[in-house]
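Deviation from plan, reported transparently: xanthosine-5'-monophosphate complex.
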Amino acid sequence: NVLILDFGSQYTQLIARRVRELNIYCEIHPYNKIPESLENFKAVILSGSPNSVRGELVLHPDLSAIKGKKPLLAVCYGAQYLAHFSGGKVAESNTREYGRANLSYIKTSENFFRNIVEGSQVWMSHSDTIKELPTNAVLLASTTDVENAAYKIEGEDTFGIQFHPEVYHSTDGKQLLANFLVDIAKVEQNWTPDSFVDSTVAAIQEKVGNDKVVLGLSGGVDSSVAAVLLHKAIGKNLYCIFVNNGLLRKNEFESVLNQYQGMGLNVKGVDASDRFLSALKDLSDPELKRKAIGNAFIEVFDDEAHQIKDVKWLAQGTIYPDVIESVSVNGGPSATIKSHHNVGGLPDFMKLKIVEPLRMIFKDEVRRVGASLGIDKELLGRHPFPGPGLAIRILGDITPEKVRILQEVDAIFINGLKEDGLYDKVWQAGAMLLPVNSVGVMGDERTYEKVVALRAVESTDGMTADWVDLPYKFLQKTSNKIINQVKGVNRVVYDISSKPPATIEWE
Ligand code: XMP
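Because the crystal trials were delayed, the predicted structure below was used instead.
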């Protein structure tokens, strides 16, 4: 078990993911909330930070229970922090230190650099630099521009590195983490999808006993994996509810419901399309639409849950990135861009206890766990789909006719991606129905019909995204199909905006 102390770096979650890839369990905690008991942590990693050890906003935790007592790896800010407060000198750097660099010197006698040779590429991202090491430190590596790229404190298993081993572009980064965690800290590599399944099943059985549990399925990866895991633990005591809000993809309700039943889950499909559509009637503001859908979902789910006698628990597919407490380094609250209704978040009045079997794992691990549970590859590889569904892809007010049009367009686009082997190259794709008509000509007739926009993005977590350069031939074919086959659409455009400054969804 490894403790990662977060100083607010954009890469902290990446450190955790790299550690997990080594089959080692780790947890991220804010730098100022160090767990009281450190007994279970065999090693500690300090993350980077956008702050400076020289600034007013220096983040200054008390590491006396850690430094010199447990193997400690300090990355970037962490390395500067340790150097600064142990008698070294940190100053603003006068050369640019962003991006690619190569280790021009390595003290090869150290286990820390086992299997890493001079010339190894590392990734830098810092504006301060360690000018002088503390007197009890030994230099372990340098780059051409950064003399003190890595150091060790004598007599301790304490290491500082200026570069970021967690990013993909540090080619030997994972090896370095393995050297530190496995060779030096002697942490066991026993965190695998299978071991996760075994321990989680046991933990659920212990926690829930013979109680009944209700879970809202969405058709997405997280709730599906959570359901199969719970089903493995408590069998028929798991009651799944899959709500059709009338805003799903074409035929999705029936096909996903069948798939769930085929997996042996005890699932009830509830078609509440009319209820959602009437809740949405005449609403065109995106936030009001989200709220109306969130509320309708709670009502429907509540009605259904009340029909399950003596249900005690609500299961949710919450994953680790939703749980990690974010470190706000400047103290300011972040702006609400969209009130992402996580459909499944329920009000207190339901008085159910919560069980979240995936709350400590990342999305890629959810998929690996799903595979280890034997869940269909196709289901595990599904693109994310927003809880409010097509409602936030139909700009403005929603009518059954608009839903029908968009379902048709979306199906042509998504099936086309699958047919051409492009689906798995895209992180998320969908179509937007715009609230404008445009003039066209079909045969000899003037048309005045809807415009749709296609969007396909690559991303790792949805926080940032870039549009995908889909082949022109594919776009051409798809556009033709849509205009020829979907009545009411006479124009197709392709969205070439990145996030930021745009967002993935249009509303
Ligand atoms: P944006 O549009 O904010 O989307 O760039 C980022 C990711 O979040 C999804 N999304 C939502 N998911 N409820 C959800 O469950 C919502 O209200 C919602 N809005 C956006 C979006 O599909 C993308 O994957």
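The chain has a mean pLDDT of 93. We consider this an acceptable substitute for the interim report.
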